[in-house]
Amino acid sequence: MSSFTGNHILSVSQFDREAIELVFSVAQSMEPYAKRQKRTTVLDGAILGNLFFEPSTRTRVSFGTAFNLLGGEVRETTGMANSALAKGESLYDTARVLSGYSDIIAMRHPAAGSVAEFAEGSRVPVLNGGDGANEHPTQALLDLFTIKRELQFNNKTIDGLHIAMIGDLRYGRTVHSLSKLLCLFKNVRFTLISPKELAMPDYILAAIENAGHSLKVTDQLEGNMDADICYQTRIQEERFPSQDEANKYRGKFRLNQSIYTRHFQSKTVIMHPLPRDSRTEANELDNDLNLNPNLAIFRQTDNGVLVRMALFALTLGVENLVSQYEKPVIWYSNKS
Ligand code: CP
From CA 216, how far away is CA 205, in angstroms rounded? Predict the structure, then answer.
């Protein structure tokens, strides 16, 4: 990716290490604004079309928050039933219309490939907020940004990382996108733990092997692993053919403090893209981990705002102008 300005962000396949480092460096520079130490109006007058045709809390709201923090305005539509897609309008026509109302669009849709199809009709950059079981590139970037930051505390780098991914690796798009990004790094060890029926798709396994990484696939949490990162996932019930099918796997791979102590190191960082399913029959990431300092799930969500601010600044070509449009924060804030 030689330039971000004016380009869609549809897949992690667009990124090389240089582009990732640029996103991370701009994301880092956004921290004072996200922490309300100062504010910027660099995107004053710009409009984000935030189109979420599938449920979302953090991706939708953090896209909107990131745009607001840069001084821009947000127009939203949520749910398929509330849009003209329910009347048979094509993604192309919807994109052509909504790109006339916006300077940039963030979109989530339940069908794989839908955001790329939408982008063909758009006259403004489109950022993929998740397309079915396919990809979630902005989540992968924020996950990688979090991994980099968490490893720095232990004087480690992403090169040489050992990551354990657990749960629904078949339908979980965040692990697909993150695995593809990790293929850009060196000597990564993957331990993939899932029921056989929910294993990582073959094309991702092939990409991991082609990158020369070490790969272990298993359906058991075994022994004490020396993983740097434990990346837990939810059973993606919305992508299963039926609820009965999803119920077979719910609660199979739970992580609580005692399981963590048995299988992981005292410094292993715990991640999850969220939402975690806290219902008793699932509970893949127990509340008893909430006080564990290695639980990074809420650092991930905070980092999501920084990364999405960076992507907006880069795609709209203002990454070097942010501080020129600075203003003081005059209200009470305890985020620092
Ligand atoms: N991680 C994530 O995509 O969360 P939401 O579904 O709440 O957006």
Answer: 10
pLDDT tens digit sequence for 167-225? 999 999 999 999 999 999 999 999 999 999 999 999 999 999 999 999 999 999 989 99
End-to-end CA distance of the chain: 33
**Cα–Cα nearest to 12, from 176, 122, 212, 203:** 176
Domain regions of the chain by residue span:
12-136+301-327, 137-298
**Residues of the chain where predicted confidence (pLDDT) is lower than 50:** none
137-298, superfamily in CATH? Aspartate/ornithine carbamoyltransferase (3.40.50.1370)
CA of 90 to the centre of ligand 1 (A): 25
**What was the pLDDT predicted at 335?**
79
Contact 241, 270 (CB under 8 A): no
Distance 61 CA to ligand 1 centre (A): 9
Q: Judge if 12-136+301-327 and 137-298 fold alike in CATH terms.
A: yes
CA–centroid distance, residue 328 to ligand 1 (Å):
31
For residue 326, report the distance from its CA to the centre of ligand 1, in Å: 30
pLDDT of residue 167: 96
Atom of ligand 1 nearest to the CA of 273: 1
Residues having CB within 6 Å of any atom of ligand 1: 56-60, 130, 139, 273-275
Ligand 1: which of 50, 54, 59 to mutate, judged by most atoms within 8 Å of the beta carbon? Answer: 59
**Residue 334: predicted pLDDT:** 84
Q: Whose C-alpha lies nearest to ligand 1, atom 6?
A: 56
The class that CATH gives domain 12-136+301-327 is alpha beta
Task: Take atom 3 of ligand 1 and give the residue whose Cα is closest.
Answer: 59
Q: Give the predicted TM-score (pTM) of the model.
A: 0.96
H runs (alpha helix) in the chain: 17-29, 31-34, 58-69, 91-98, 114-120, 137-153, 173-182, 202-210, 243-247, 257-263, 297-315
